[in-house]
């Protein structure tokens, strides 16, 4: 059995090695760096509480699952509201060299219009490059649910991004 200090050292090593990746994952889910920081902090707090039960090899997947659950519960909270731009606001366009940045912002805006679980599915499948089975494990659902959520989300994204020019090499 490990001492308390050994478990804390092990957790700190895990934190240092994985916090940036978890933060980036939380950002892809939420679309906001500050919210991503909050989500990761809550997730790591929960992970630390369960650290004595976590298998070292499965810790990254377990941490990603906790981040997913924290994000989904965070979205359900009534007090979490995000400001949204409207068509009434003046938009300053930056010329051609920023085409890829504009495309990323357009895709991020489309992702923001997906339901929370659909967004989680897309991020896990395409940004994190997990298989259907790994995504199902991370979300705590069946592979069939992952497939249907992915199909529904991709259909919405196709409609939302219809007519969006894709730069060469993308």
TrEMBL record:
RNA polymerase sigma factor 70 region 4 type domain boundaries: 108-157
The entry's keywords: DNA-binding, Sigma factor, Transcription, Transcription regulation
Pfam families: Sigma70_r2, Sigma70_r4_2
Domain of life per record: Bacteria
Keyword Transcription regulation recorded: yes
Chain ranges of the RNA polymerase sigma-70 region domain: 17-78
Family annotation (NCBIfam families): SigE-fam_strep, sigma70-ECF
Family: Belongs to the sigma-70 factor family. ECF subfamily.
UniProt name for this protein: SigE family RNA polymerase sigma factor
Source organism phylogeny: Bacteria, Bacillati, Actinomycetota, Actinomycetes, Glycomycetales
């Amino acid at each position: 059995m490990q001492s308390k200090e050994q478990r804390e050292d092990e957790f700190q090593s895990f934190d240092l090695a994985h916090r940036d990746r978890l933060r980036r994952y939380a950002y892809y889910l939420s679309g906001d760096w500050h919210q991503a920081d909050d989500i990761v902090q809550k997730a790591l707090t929960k992970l630390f509480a369960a650290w004595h039960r976590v298998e070292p090899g499965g810790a990254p997947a377990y941490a990603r699952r906790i981040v997913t659950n924290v994000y989904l519960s965070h979205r359900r909270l009534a007090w979490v509201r995000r400001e949204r731009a409207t068509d009434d606001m003046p938009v300053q366009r930056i010329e051609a060299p920023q085409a890829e940045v504009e495309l990323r912002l357009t895709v991020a805006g489309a992702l923001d219009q997906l339901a929370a679980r659909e967004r989680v599915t897309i991020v896990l499948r395409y940004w994190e490059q997990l298989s259907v089975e790994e995504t199902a494990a991370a979300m705590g659902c069946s592979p069939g649910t992952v497939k249907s959520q992915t199909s529904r989300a991709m259909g919405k994204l196709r409609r939302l991004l219809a007519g969006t020019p894709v730069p060469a090499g993308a």
